[in-house]
Amino acid sequence: MRAAAASESSDFERAVELVLDDVRPMLRMDGGNVELVSADQQSGRVEVHLVGACGHCPASGYTLSFAIEAKLKAKLADVREVIAL
Question: What is the pTM of this model?
């Protein structure tokens, strides 16, 4: 049973990473990037870390909400919230 849960988790994390890969070129154009910290399919919570210029940019909240979170929610129905750590 645990192996199945771990497999589902890793599948979900891979799906999140694929969506983040779609967003990364835009972030890199401004000298930033995003790293996946954790993704829990059961709770729908995705935790990310904004790095580079995105880590201290005054507009990082907008980037998180309107680029990263919006894209994840549009592509993955299980995503309920995206938190920047």
Answer: 0.88
